[in-house]
Amino acid sequence: MFRKILAAVLAVTMVLLLLCGCGDSDKVKEKKSEKKNTAEEIVISSYKPDTLCPVLSTNEANIGMLGIVYDSLISLPDNLFPESCLAESWSVSENGIKWHFALRKDVMWHDGTAFGAEDVIYTIETIKKNENSIYAYNVSLLDKIQKNGDFELEISLKEPCINFASLLYFPIIKKQDGEINKGTFRPIGTGPYRLEDRNDGNILYLVKNDSWWGGEAVTDCITVKMLPDNDTALYTFSSGSIDMTLSEDMNWGRFVDPISASYVSMPTPIFHFLGINHNNEVLGLKEVRRALSLAINRSKLAEEVMMGYATESSIPIHPKWFVWGDKKIEFKQSFSGAKKELHENGWEIKNENYQKTVDDKTWTLELGILYNEENRQRKEIAEAVKQNLEELGIKSHTEAVSFEEYNTRIQEGDYEIFIGSTIISPELTFSLIIGENNVFGFENEKIDEAMKAIGSKHSVSGIEEGYGKLIDCFDELNPVVGLFFEEKIMVYNKRIENGITPSYFDAYKGIEFLRKEESK
Fold it and tell me: How many CB atoms lie within 10 A of CB 163?
């Protein structure tokens, strides 16, 4: 409903803007007539790159753009079920330690040389040597890697990981001699487009690779305009100078004419939650955590804080991930369910607050909600959670502190509840939440056994069954109280045919098969 209202408001707004700009209509028409729009070019944006080496860049927009130039071993779609790319097939040993990868034999680099196992080894070694690489974690489990011929690899892990293949979505770079110079690095990939040097200032030209193993690209050229930031990209999109861009602004609608443009939302692994201090005697009780979870109005949070672009979840597993299987879990607010949890476990309202007495010791439910004051989104979440808890009958207050103090207090365990977020890594070991020495002080044999059992699964159905039991553990024990997963937005010009299918792990997925209609 909110999105429909937003679309209507946008339509009215754009009509008013068009009426206000009538005085310069002739100049606008003249400029548009000068611009050449063909079916052979699509224009996107990126930011000024820190480097054009895709495994050493820390610029998100830059990495997304370079995904058009490079391929990875596997492709990771939104459901996290890995698909073959440069790796044609793979298998894992019974103990989950040794992995075998068979590589494609028909792949050529943009300079005409053949791709092979040596390039994969070189890429992984490059990442391992650069701890600031955004892919450093992806290779942290590797113990040894060796080739068996030119197109086969054997990888040994330090410990079992049944979803290890899901970490191999990073781009593979060509083996070269000597150290990589980040400033002068020129990308040579295996992807559908290659960089063409035209010395054209802040514009890059990616022309189609006629030797691409994945088929023939439809669009001849992807033009990349290098812009300062996302706000500039959105303004540039609204002027018609680029055809699509990712939005980091939840208020992206003010940049979009609903008549000529549209958008697509994509699920992400960015998980927002209430961090729970399990060393706190009261919060260490699972019925309290369960009651907190039932008290939260997640649908309202998603609509009001995230403008509707979020997927509700009380646990750190996205309902769209393949490991979710056919589980049925309700994320709806239920004060009656929360009160039942508390009352059945000895909690009663006394002096206008919940209390519980055990062995002459009385506990009182009164909670502080910590967040960093610089983060507007977390402030809104904290205020909403406070309201939900007080409606249940739990006294609470918010604590706004600097980001530095926020981090320090979490690390030192000086909190009751904090508003947090994290990116769930696609191998789904949840080390931050339930791993050894996690910041929540959470320990539980039942959940440890469930995770250990998953490591012995090898079939898709077996993995789904294993994670089904883990989902039940999360739902019962609430190591953290989940709120929602973010969605990202890609806005695009409606003149692009065939539709677009962006993914969190591949922002321009399928761009090689898009076509832009001629201007009318």
Answer: 22
Residue labelled with tokens 């992400």: 268
- Per-residue pLDDT at 18: 28
Any residues with CB less than 8 A from the CB of 58 and at least 6 apart, and which?
50, 132, 134
Site of tokens 């999105």: 3
Q: Which of 285, 259, 324 is nearest to 464 (CA)?
A: 324
Would you state the pLDDT for residue 255?
76
Is the domain spanning 267-487 CATH 3.50.50.60? The answer is no
Q: How far is CA 392 from the centre of its chain?
A: 33
Find the radius of gyration of the CA atoms of the chain: 26
308 C-beta neighbours (distance < 10 Å), count = 16
pLDDT along the chain (520 residues), means of 10: 38 32 36 41 90 93 94 96 96 91 97 97 96 95 94 95 95 94 94 89 92 92 92 90 86 80 92 97 96 97 93 96 91 95 94 88 94 96 97 96 97 97 96 91 94 84 92 96 95 82 92 75
| CA separation for the pair 253, 4 (Å, rounded) | 12
Cβ–Cβ < 8 Å for 115, 190: yes
Listed by start position, the domains of the chain span: 36-50+191-260+494-520, 70-186, 267-487
**What span, in angstroms and rounded, lies between the C-alpha atoms of 476 and 466?**
16
- Within 296-360, where are the H helices? 298-304, 335-344
Which pLDDT belongs to residue 400?
98
How far, in Å, CA of 236 to CA of 464, rounded?
A: 44
The secondary structure of residue 106, as a DSSP letter, is: S
pLDDT of 519: 56
| 3-state secondary structure labels for all residues of 436-499 | CCCCCCCCCHHHHHHHHHHCCCCCHHHHHHHHHHHHHHHHHHCCEEEEEEEEEEEEEECCEECC
Asked whether the beta carbons of 416 and 277 are under 8 A apart, the reply is yes
Sequence-distant (6+) residues with CB within 8 A of 324 are 317, 318, 464, 467, 471
- What superfamily in CATH does domain 70-186 come from? Dipeptide-binding Protein; Domain 1 (3.90.76.10)
Distances in Å between the Cα of 51 and the Cα atoms of 99, 365, 506 are 32, 52, 19
Tell me the CA end-to-end span of the chain in Å, nearest whole number: 33
Place of tokens 């039932």: 294
Fold exhibited by the domain 36-50+191-260+494-520: D-Maltodextrin-Binding Protein; domain 2 (3.40.190)
> What b/e readout covers 503-517, taking b as 16+ CB neighbours within 10 angstroms?
bbbbbbbebbbbebe
